[in-house]
Amino acid sequence: MTTILINTLLLLAIILMLSINLSYFCGKEPSHYAAIDDERFSIANITKGITTISNRKLSPFIPPFIPFRSTFVASPKYSLAACRIQKNLSTILLHLFCYLNTPRKFSKKASSLTTEFKNHLSTETCNTTHATHIATNTTFTTKLAIIRDPVERFLSGFVDKCIHEAKNKDSRCYGCDRDLVCVLKEQYTRFQMIVDGSLRSYSYEDRHFAPMSWFCDFDPETIKNYQFLYFGETEEQQGQTISDLMDVLDTHGVDNHTISHIFDELSANRTKHSTSGSEIRRKMGAELRKSKEAMRYLYHLYENDYRVFNLKSPFIYHKV
Ligand SMILES: *[C@@H]1O[C@H](CO)[C@@H](O)[C@H](O)[C@H]1NC(C)=O
Ligand SMILES: *[C@@H]1O[C@H](CO)[C@@H](O)[C@H](O)[C@H]1NC(C)=O
Ligand SMILES: *[C@@H]1O[C@H](CO)[C@@H](O)[C@H](O)[C@H]1NC(C)=O
Ligand SMILES: *[C@@H]1O[C@H](CO)[C@@H](O)[C@H](O)[C@H]1NC(C)=O
Ligand SMILES: *[C@@H]1O[C@H](CO)[C@@H](O)[C@H](O)[C@H]1NC(C)=O
Ligand SMILES: *[C@@H]1O[C@H](CO)[C@@H](O)[C@H](O)[C@H]1NC(C)=O
Ligand SMILES: CC(=O)N[C@H]1CO[C@H](CO)[C@@H](O)[C@@H]1O
């Protein structure tokens, strides 16, 4: 009898959650999130009770820590390694680590860490820069991962894959043709299938939209071995990430000359690394905020990422 009661309560709670009016970016400042007004009514507080007692099948949230193939780079010399989560930044990380692993003698010309750099790096050095499963490898005293706001990450991926790349490839983003809800819905279904083991082959889109907590061999234990750098959306935040990264290099004995070179490269080309300033990005962001359905999918897809990485969730619970 108590089981029935608990189940009924659970159902009610879930229905209540589904009817939560989500809003996003309520503030006037588009690059900042509106904070959760009242802690007591925070989604974290409400869902905490539910997710701990309900089984996975009942929860509409995509769970964290599903193992997903990841790539890593390492510089054993500096006892430093990193997990590459996001495509764009991951290219930079690869080049940066190649640069660290390349003997100091190489020419000034071969200095650009972003686009041209890779043409000058030795393939051999870059090959050995790749690593596997760093999370528990004690060779590296610091394991880095760069994380980004989950909704911003989705938006950036959407603009990049589902708008720009889809221009030359109709099948891109499941043929959704710029439709946010269509992509989110498809992705939500696919991730649910991945979670319950019924989907075996992953799409290009899966890799870009999967929750960050699925990467890097993260689990509740290994995640503690990582040092996180946060990649924000504003110039200032991105500048901060770069300085944080330089501090890490400094701590690991990278010489000043190399650090200042890397710093100049990353700083000069910083704005190119993100699409946060683009017109289309703003337009899609506005469209996203207006769509309740899109917001609900985002909430179910990424709320766990906000929790796992201790990021301020943009989803607001409104008292009803
Ligand atoms: C949802 O919340 C927003 C912001 O408070 C409000 O403008 C909108 O009317 C609400 N929608 C519903 C259906 O309650
Ligand atoms: C959750 O709600 C309870 C009861 O209202 C409150 O005491 C607690 O501080 C809240 N915790 C968080 C994390 O908001
Ligand atoms: C980096 O920025 C500098 C200065 O704007 C530019 O000259 C250089 O070509 C850029 N490098 C890359 C790889 O984009
Ligand atoms: C680097 O790796 C690629 C792909 O794995 C391989 O084809 C190539 O031969 C390697 N080059 C060197 C110099 O090891
Ligand atoms: C740790 O990483 C180093 C360098 O990449 C590698 O040689 C070693 O085999 C790794 N150790 C384990 C236990 O994976
Ligand atoms: C390198 O930087 C550190 C701290 O910024 C400074 O104390 C040191 O003198 C610098 N070394 C050289 C060789 O410039
Ligand atoms: C360094 C790098 O790969 N930058 C890319 C980031 O993504 C934008 C948008 O697709 C590209 O234009 C940049 O080249």
From TrEMBL:
<dbReference type="Pfam" id="PF03567">
    <property type="entry name" value="Sulfotransfer_2"/>
</dbReference>
<dbReference type="GO" id="GO:0047756">
    <property type="term" value="F:chondroitin 4-sulfotransferase activity"/>
</dbReference>
<feature type="signal peptide">
    <location>
        <begin position="1"/>
        <end position="19"/>
    </location>
</feature>
<keyword id="KW-0732">Signal</keyword>
<dbReference type="GO" id="GO:0016020">
    <property type="term" value="C:membrane"/>
</dbReference>
<dbReference type="GO" id="GO:0050650">
    <property type="term" value="P:chondroitin sulfate proteoglycan biosynthetic process"/>
</dbReference>
<dbReference type="GO" id="GO:1902884">
    <property type="term" value="P:positive regulation of response to oxidative stress"/>
</dbReference>
<dbReference type="InterPro" id="IPR005331">
    <property type="entry name" value="Sulfotransferase"/>
</dbReference>
<protein>
    <recommendedName>
        <fullName>Sulfotransferase domain-containing protein</fullName>
    </recommendedName>
</protein>
<dbReference type="InterPro" id="IPR007669">
    <property type="entry name" value="Chst-1-like"/>
</dbReference>
